[in-house]
Amino acid sequence: MTEKVVIFDTTLRDGEQSPGASMNTAEKMRLAIQLEKLGVDVIEAGFPAASQGDFDAVREVAGRIRNSQIAALARASKEDIDKAWGSVKGATHPRIHTFIATSDIHLEHKLKMTRDQVVEAAVDAVKYAKSLTDNVEFSAEDGSRSDPDFLCKVFGAVISAGATTVNLPDTVGYAMPDEFGRLVAYVREKTPGMKQVVLSVHCHNDLGLATANSLAGLKGGARQVEVTINGIGERAGNTSLEEVVMGLYTRKEHLGLTTSVNTREIHPASRLVSMITGIVVQPNKAIVGANAFAHEAGIHQDGVLKNRMTYEIMEPEIVGLSTNRLVLGKHSGRHAFRQKLTSLGYDLLEKDLDRVFARFKELADKRKEILDEDIEVLVAEEILRVPDIYQLDYLNVVSGTVAVPTATVKLKIDGQDSQGAGFGVGPIDATFNTIAKMTGTRSRLVRFSINAISGGTDAQGEVMVRLQENGFVALGKGADPDIFIASAKAYVNGLNRLEYLKRNPSLSAEERGL
Ligand code: KIV
Ligand code: ZN
To answer: By the number of CB atoms within 10 A of the CB, which of 7, 153, 222, 380 ranks highest?
Structure first.
């Protein structure tokens, strides 16, 4: 008989703690909608005590999502728990997730508390959370480096206090799979009351073992696994959802465990996380990397053509990669375009559709083949659009082995023509320096990433920039077959978004994200 594993997605909380991955409310909402479509059981939407922005984002997600449970994280304190509850109480299925560290290293150096004090704080926190909701999760931070018998004591005490899920994290990614599996089995066996609650695992990837440790934890008896899309998260990241889910799916006869995830939504979710955070997936990443299903070697190609099972353990369609990826061309009409958008999961307002369709026609004039990925980028660019204060009219760059990289730029600034030129260490630096000088902006470039949207030398380059100025952070995107133009577009888009935030400081978080 197969048992079900609860998939607890923490992309919006632990994933958002990746350097440079912070998301605004509108971005969190788009991702939460995709996570619900993906069929995750629990969405951890944020850490409301961290900031007002986090609180607002969790509250808005909680008010919109109906099928998945919505969890909010809280330290083991009344104030944090009040904020967590304030943010999730409007959810159809709310959960409070409270935590305190249990390892001696954390007790001595960080908390400066004795073991008895930690047990008391954990119990008080769970009791208080339980007075607000039935659905309470407790996590023993740095659990894998804690004394196993102390862990059992803490877990036993919080279960008596009303916790319905207890989570054993490998917070620093230190555990080895056999060791972690044994620890989970030990805790499951020795903790009073454990069989009445859900035991969970939460692993980090510092030694590249997060997926292996999570699967070992499931073998040891855990029935919830905490994961993020693309494995994003603190430092080297968290366990990646797609790896665990596809491991359980592909080897069900080995593990005997299932999930409620609609695996066909994995690839769209992965793309969305990359588009929103600007964190590009490495090409050889399992399941969602660009090369995950690419067969390069002749002998492999030959085998796959004879029978896919020779070198493919999963069908790409199962994770949402369509094999029929060639979509529309320049003769495609608005109706076909709308149908394509619907099949990709986008339900656009008429005015948004007009803009995206116009951009599609422009691109179709330049390129013969328009792929799903191209359309996704156009949608992302147009939906992220704010009123243009700056518009790119013209860009000319000079660079090469002997030339000093130079950019000549023409912009419209609040409708007025402006022209400038400047140097840099490379053509993109020259372009950005020139645009910054012309617009009088002083933003810091926190992240820059460039990605070929599809194969071929005529592929569109997709550039994402993350800009920071005066406490505001904005993501800018641009796509073009010419990567210098794509970079300039992304930079100008980011500056527009920053300027919009600065000029409208009183807008709601949702409005600011648009
Ligand atoms: O890694 C960790 O220990 C955490 C807890 C808060 C669950 O993220
Ligand atoms: Zn974590």
So the answer is: 222
